[in-house]
Amino acid sequence: MSEFITYVQLGFRHIVDVEAMDHILFLLALAAIYRWRDARGALAVITAFTVGHSITLALAVTHVVQLPPALIEFLIPVTIVATGVENLAATAERRRARRGWYRPLIAGTFGLIHGAGFANYLNALFVDRIALPLFGFNVGIEIGQVLVLTCAALLLAALDAALGAARSWSQTWPAYRVRVTAVSLAVVVIAARWAAERAPW
Fold first, then answer.
1. Is the pTM of this model over 0.90?
2. How many CA atoms lie within 13 A of 3 on its CB side?
3. How far is Cα 80 from Cα 153, in angstroms, rounded to an integer?
4. Domains of the chain: which residue ranges?
């Protein structure tokens, strides 16, 4: 049990550590369009992301799939940029699609890439046994994600309240739209810089 707890702690620390800021920023990009009343849709998206990164993490640490670390480190911020741009470009039709399969599909696909990033870290820790470390590490990641997303939800709700109190927003630019735009733009700018710094060519 102590070994399992150790890997849970490693997974948790990995997702909340400043070195994992790219994963935290991706979770913020995913959460940026949601409000408290959208909890069901947000849960579907996060579940899809979890499934995606769990699949690749398992395949990578068991050496079924080998992916170049430099390419993965470049693609992770690219997924963040793409998510932020999708937030900004979404039309009313796309917003309705978010209640269905569209947004979870994006999150699950990008989760495949992020799982490879987790695997690059976890591979260095393995000696022989894989199942227990893999399971424990994944549990730790999920606990960390819940914490990050809870903090993000509180932050976004506080931002909505602050914007709503600051002025009476027009129908064209309500407080919610201003918040989504501001957060998504910040995410895109930061991630684009990371992508440029990590470009493998």
1. no
2. 10
3. 18
4. 2-198
